[in-house]
Predict the structure.
Amino acid sequence: MLHILYIIAITAEAMTAALSAGRRNMDWVGVCMIAWVTALGGGTIRNILLGHYPMTWVSHPEYLLITAGAALFAALIASFMRRLKMLFLYLDALGLVVFTIIGCQLAEEMHLPVIIILLSGMITGCAGGVLRDVLCNDIPLLFRKEVYASVAIVTGGVYLGMEALGSSAQWATVIAAVIGLILRLLAIRYEWQMPKFVYHEEWE
Amino acid sequence: MLHILYIIAITAEAMTAALSAGRRNMDWVGVCMIAWVTALGGGTIRNILLGHYPMTWVSHPEYLLITAGAALFAALIASFMRRLKMLFLYLDALGLVVFTIIGCQLAEEMHLPVIIILLSGMITGCAGGVLRDVLCNDIPLLFRKEVYASVAIVTGGVYLGMEALGSSAQWATVIAAVIGLILRLLAIRYEWQMPKFVYHEEWE
Amino acid sequence: MLHILYIIAITAEAMTAALSAGRRNMDWVGVCMIAWVTALGGGTIRNILLGHYPMTWVSHPEYLLITAGAALFAALIASFMRRLKMLFLYLDALGLVVFTIIGCQLAEEMHLPVIIILLSGMITGCAGGVLRDVLCNDIPLLFRKEVYASVAIVTGGVYLGMEALGSSAQWATVIAAVIGLILRLLAIRYEWQMPKFVYHEEWE
């Protein structure tokens, strides 16, 4: 079940990433690379940091084909994708909570401390978007806008909390995913923003 | 033989990288760093992603000295290097195919799937330039211009195809390198460009 | 002793990193991320390159809490921190030499060649700042300004030199730290700059 949602999520992430690449006038290599980095980069960075080999896409190279295909398809139907903007925002929210829970589960299986489990979920959910923004030469959106990383933390927290209360992993996953999704959709709907720290002093 | 070409290629990559650093007014530390990242970064990223330790430059620290020396030498003779522009474009093309084949061979020895072997070649051939552009605060050139990553894919494909047809690794290497080189030189000569995906809609 | 200085240094690095994040109008997630990357990123990159697992902050997750807390505290008292500018420049110099020596020691314990030991020290001391600048969408300051990486090289060189002369690791640490600190403070005081390589020719 989580596996199917994962495939849907990486496909959707790859398609929106293709539009980011298009706004930077990239060629088809750039489109595929940005799609891979956005859809699979979060899990990759998590695995590198935790020393967990092999990478998901090395054991499942079909994910590379799926995401590349989705990205090139999105480039073809770019003018149509505009009308699906809300759908893709929802799929991105789905991806965020699914990636986060998968990241938490992996760190749990490695018997890592609670903070690292939460961080593993957050990195899996968010780092792909950060990599995309670095490669597109932007300041990562994650660091500046919207309730996004916070959703990953809440999702991971609910998941761990449910398990600590004696819930099965299945129920913890469902409840954490639903709460995370609702939170993210509310954030999109009401345009919630995190308080910003603005500092204009020149320091060095 | 491939080893000698590899040394020539990292030396040439380090020298052109030094000029990139110079265009950004970097000091000698920056010149060395950009040279290392450009010449050795592709193989390093591949090794990190595939979990292949130790790094080439840890077992062969002399590569660090060679590339740093070449970069500082290039900075010294910068005004003269201008006249050698075509020579260095050719050496860069040589580096691209040599790095690609080395990357394919390494993934082959690890018994990875075909797609990963191709990707390993592409990352080895191209990722150094991407890292250089990120550190110089540019949108990676690879994603926007020229037939470059495509040459890596064709080179790797010919190499694997030859082997599938029963050829020895030596012959596969020679044929793949020659075809890759010719393709890249034609791309330089006729200024081939990949089709771009241009998308100006604001999305989110 | 080195351990206590390490805690002080990552706290100080996290606090100055928070101000960098504030200048880019980041939210609290961005502030924490930039703090983590700046304070712990050098050691993390070193561990990834050397294949040394687990990461420091996985075995000591309390470092994540300390640095995040310090960064958020710095954001709260930002207007006051301005007056402490010199104090934080000194603490940053302390961090540079402490991180460098820790990086050298780790590579030494792995029985790596001398060049790699020096590089390991330099990466540990300097890479956090490079990552911070990449995420803030700047050309890394390290590559353009000031006697900074050179201090790391001298510190590592003195440390290794002392040991080669038969000194104990303790004495080598003390002498290398003192010489490194003096060099960095002189560089700040007299605004030393490394010679730059400026090159305006368009190349390709």
Observations:
- Chain A has a mean pLDDT of 88.
- The interface with chain B takes residues 16, 18-31, 33-34, 44, 48, 53-55, 57-58, 61, 64-65, 75, 78-79, 82, 85, 89, 134-137 of chain A (CB under 8 Å).
- Chain A has one domain: 2-189.
- Residues 85-109 of chain A form the longest helix (25 residues).
